[in-house]
Design goal:
Blueprint (H helix, E strand, L loop, with lengths): L10 H7 L2 H27 L6 H27 L4 H35 L9 H73 L5 H17 L6 E2 H19 L3 E9 L5 E2 L5 H11 L7 E10 L2 E8 L12 H9 L1
Parallel strand pairs: 2-4
Antiparallel strand pairs: 1-3, 4-5
Helix pairs in contact: 3-4, 3-5, 4-5, 5-6, 5-7, 5-9, 6-7
Amino acid sequence: MSRSLTPTLPPWLLSWLNRRVVRHGLFWATALGLNFLIQLPGHFIVGTKLYVWGLLFNQLPASLLTIYPLLYGLLPRLLRGRPLPLTLALLAGWLLFTVAVTGLTRTFFDFVVQPRLFGIPPGRPFSNAEYFNLSYTWFILMATAGGAVAVKVVNGWYEQRQLSERLRQQQLHAELQLLKAQLQPAFLFSTLHTLGTLTAAKSAQAPGAVLLLADLLRYLLYESPQDAVPLADEVAMLRDYVALEQLRLGTRVEVSLNFSGDLAAHRIAPLLLLPFLENAFRHGTGAGLDCAWVSIDLVARPAGLTFKIINSQPPTAPALREGPGLRAVRQRL
């Protein structure tokens, strides 16, 4: 009676099994089949008569009338954490209900079905055989109810797990989008500040800076929303960013760029490397540094990549606290 089936099944079979009537029919067919198999050893060893029609006209109706109220009426209330006295009272009431239903269906089978359909006269009331048949019917009903409850609980657990996993994935996706949004304002402000500086100085390099900014904005708008982009595109964005920083800083900073390896063979989360560049230029090109420099090395290998940035920040400088950009990168990783 599962609602969530593995997606590895063929589509036609998955569509067929996703029908509630089919799933319930398979469950009851399995239950009746197991009840029939239980009788076979006694039939072949000691010659016990097979209880076939009783399964259809007695066992099945009794199970249907008692197990469905348990699964869809009583069980959901029990799982909500009802007080213990109320829980025990509900269970006791259901057990009494099963005894009454079992007695009625057994009486109907003995006094109506067997005489009219098979010509078998009813047995003596309150006889040992009648008591055994009634006890057997109730025992099989309890076993079937236990199996149905187990399927229901496991299925509910599985569905809850699937729901939790979907919610977790949605939460992670939302967090990643939020982290990207946290990176993008600093990205835009930095490039716009560079362009503003060049425009204010009426630099001949301003038109080139506008084109670089256009490429960056295109990457920001059309590439960064994706889960992953080619590493070559990310490197091209880093080159544009470095070019804009060099235009802003002029000859005051020396930049060394080294990108090697098969960049087209890798994919990477967009804007993942940008905070490292932003930090390197922010802390390594301060006005108090006599000879500012930034060294950037990225090596792409078949098994991964190595990205290393060194700047002119003195090793003896006070340790810097991890800013929001690096925290965002750590969370994304």
